[in-house]
């Protein structure tokens, strides 16, 4: 199996490859309340179209679709304030709630059924490491205005609080809140800095 821009293809990515553009977009449409006018759905649909376009092997055949994709990408970015490049590893049924100030790093990954809200940034942390980007697991719930920076991993079923600034890994089923983000242990509600996780 061929490698993705991020290295070896994962099982989730392989599953995406087996689904048609229409199947993926239909799932996204249902996830967004069957409302094709929602900016979030439109952004995700354009992303899916971009991924589909770049799979066309013939440069001659791909060229007009590539031009159309670039036009649609800029339209979504400039009109709705949602920057979601086709290089993002986007899972199935990802929801983008609302619009405005949403910037997703081109090398970021977002797992199935995650939710991204307005004002969210997934980006690199250091200027000398421009390709570093967050990796979100499945069913990650990202609150409005949250910022997630660097080559970090956010586990499955994590909640990121509104306006939180996440700079380190977050374990599965945890909640991260504050600036810088602190973890709320789901078992005993004890709070500790994310940086302390490496000492546990």
Structure description:
The protein is of the alpha/beta class and 200 residues long. The protein has a single domain (11-199), classed as UDP N-Acetylglucosamine Acyltransferase, domain 1. The chain is 28% helix and 19% strand. The chain is built from four helices and 16 strands. It has helices spanning 11-18, 21-31, 39-54, 59-80; strands spanning 82-83, 89-90, 95-96, 102-104, 109-110, 115-116, 121-123, 135-136, 141-142, 147-149, 153-154, 159-160, 165-166, 175-177, 182-184, 191-193. The strands form four sheets. A five-stranded parallel beta sheet has the order 1-4-7-10-13. Strands 9-12-14-15-16 form a five-stranded mixed beta sheet, with no helix packed on it. Strands 2-5-8-11 form a four-stranded parallel beta sheet, with no helix packed on it. A hairpin with a 4-residue loop joins strand 14 and strand 15. The protein is globular, with a radius of gyration of 17 Å. Mean pLDDT is 88; it is low at 1-7 and 188-200.
SSE topology:
Elements: H1 11-18, H2 21-31, H3 39-54, H4 59-80, E1 82-83, E2 89-90, E3 95-96, E4 102-104, E5 109-110, E6 115-116, E7 121-123, E8 135-136, E9 141-142, E10 147-149, E11 153-154, E12 159-160, E13 165-166, E14 175-177, E15 182-184, E16 191-193
Parallel strand pairs: 1-4, 2-5, 3-6, 4-7, 5-8, 7-10, 8-11, 9-12, 10-13, 12-14
Antiparallel strand pairs: 14-15, 15-16
Helix pairs in contact: 2-3, 3-4
């Amino acid at each position: 199996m061929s490698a993705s821009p991020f290295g070896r293809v994962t099982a989730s990515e392989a599953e995406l490859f087996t689904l048609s553009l229409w199947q993926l977009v239909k799932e996204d449409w249902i996830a967004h309340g069957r409302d094709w006018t929602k900016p979030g759905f439109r952004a995700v649909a354009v992303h899916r179209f971009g991924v589909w376009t770049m799979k066309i092997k013939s440069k001659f055949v791909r060229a007009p679709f590539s031009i159309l994709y670039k036009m649609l990408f800029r339209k979504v970015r400039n009109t709705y304030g949602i920057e979601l490049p086709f290089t993002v590893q986007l899972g199935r049924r990802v929801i983008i709630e609302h619009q405005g100030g949403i910037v997703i790093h081109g090398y970021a990954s977002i797992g199935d059924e995650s939710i991204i809200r307005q004002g969210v940034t997934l980006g690199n942390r250091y200027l000398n490491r421009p390709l570093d980007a967050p990796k979100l697991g499945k069913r990650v719930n990202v609150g409005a205005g949250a910022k997630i920076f660097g080559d970090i991993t956010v586990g499955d079923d994590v909640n990121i609080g509104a306006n939180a600034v996440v700079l380190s890994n977050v374990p599965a089923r945890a909640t991260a809140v504050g600036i810088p983000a602190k973890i709320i242990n789901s078992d005993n509600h004890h709070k500790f800095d994310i940086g302390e996780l490496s000492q546990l």
